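[09:14] KT: can someone run the structure on this one? pasting the chain below
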Amino acid sequence: MLVQLKTGFSMRFIDLFSGCGGLSLGLTKAGWKGVFAIEKSEDAFKTFAHNFNRKKALKFDWPEWLPHEPISTSELLEQYRVQLIALKGKIDLIAGGPPCQGFSFAGRRQEGDPRNQLKNEYLEIVNIIRPKFLVFENVKGFTAKFQGAKKQTHSEQVVEQLEGLSWGGYRTFSSVINASSFGVPQPRPRFILVAVRADLADENSGIEDPFQNISEYAANFRARKKLNGHKISAKEAISDLEVESSGVHSSEDTNGFKQINYRAETHSEFQKLMRKGLPAGKRANSLRLARHRPKTLLRFKEILESCPKGKSLPREFREKYNIKKQCFTPLHPDELSKTITTLPDDLLHYSEPRILTVRECARLQTFPDWFEFLGKYTTGGVRRKQECPRYTQVGNAVPPLMAEALGLKIIEMAKTHG
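[09:31] RB: done, structure tokens below
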């Protein structure tokens, strides 16, 4: 069953490690009201603030004591602990997923990665505010032990700590779920934990495991979005943005680059959904094309003509084309995209010799076309540790469509209780 909030039924949330706003966007569309969001990256926060400030329906009830600027969770705890204590019992949901690079199978999975400790700051903030509900998102690797490790996984630690907090803790439910279940055009398996404060979730509360019938729930959600019946393919998601049919013109934000024309035609229900909310005559941003060298274009053309699509290039192909990347994949037009990462050159377009634009990656993440990304497109070298360009913002995000489905599910749980 899917629910809608009744007039006057207000549920307030805080987003920790918000990034550019994928999780907040989904929760807001589900009917939640944002209070504030914490993100330390200046680039990602600019994108977040730009989008959530310019639409009245999305605007957060930002408290006067908290500057509207990038800040880390450690700074929040150090500088605003008194204010956080004052929020005790006044927040319905804390949402967020600490940066996942230290856990991801796509990365180096270093046990000592300092980003892995951010979950402890998340737990400390939860312990202070004590919201009714929690939703915690991370990569699938969050549930796996580091190589050679004998202790608990990080997901087991989080569950144990939440359940055992001194004042009563939380009843927790968790599962690894593919985002494609909710209409996202990529598998993107994620560890999702939903928790209910223990005093609200006793045996008489009627609250059940939200993941128990998740397949049926996801099918109903897709049907409501007119995405029922099948998984959304890469072509269904981005075929209206092909260079061949749309053409190009000079980039609107970067001299010397071209961008794809944004035309009115759509070819699928998914594309109609992504264009919803964009004012008539308005173009989506971040359609800038990469400037590939002639040698690179020839190599990409040969790969599209001779290599299997939808699979990472086999070793012999990588050696033939002198490609160092282990997971370089030409998309298959009729299959799900491979999981979007923070690196723009992980995926090759299914029919055109080029990497994807930021907007195409955003489509595959289910960001609507009205949502605008700010900042540099890419970065490199030592700057990667300080900067969060557009491709990285998109790759790090929670798919808004998945977040909306989770937000509606938690509202169901809230209504069951009260």
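[09:33] KT: thanks! Residues 234-371 form a domain with the DNA Methylase; Chain A, domain 2 fold (CATH 3.90.120).
[09:34] RB: yep, looked fine to me
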